[in-house]
């Protein structure tokens, strides 16, 4: 399965308030009906607080090998 795109991740996280931790990001994405590949990628990122969408996207890229 393909890694999620920046747009897919941001769509899944629309409306979330930052800073947000990994579990908050996963829960919010699930509530926004994100696809499994987006949820799986978010579960792989480091467990810390993220200050904004760019930090999340960078962490997802790092966690999925930057594909």
TrEMBL record:
<feature type="region of interest" description="Disordered">
    <location>
        <begin position="46"/>
        <end position="67"/>
    </location>
</feature>
<dbReference type="Pfam" id="PF11387">
    <property type="entry name" value="DUF2795"/>
</dbReference>
<dbReference type="InterPro" id="IPR021527">
    <property type="entry name" value="DUF2795"/>
</dbReference>
<protein>
    <submittedName>
        <fullName>Uncharacterized protein DUF2795</fullName>
    </submittedName>
</protein>
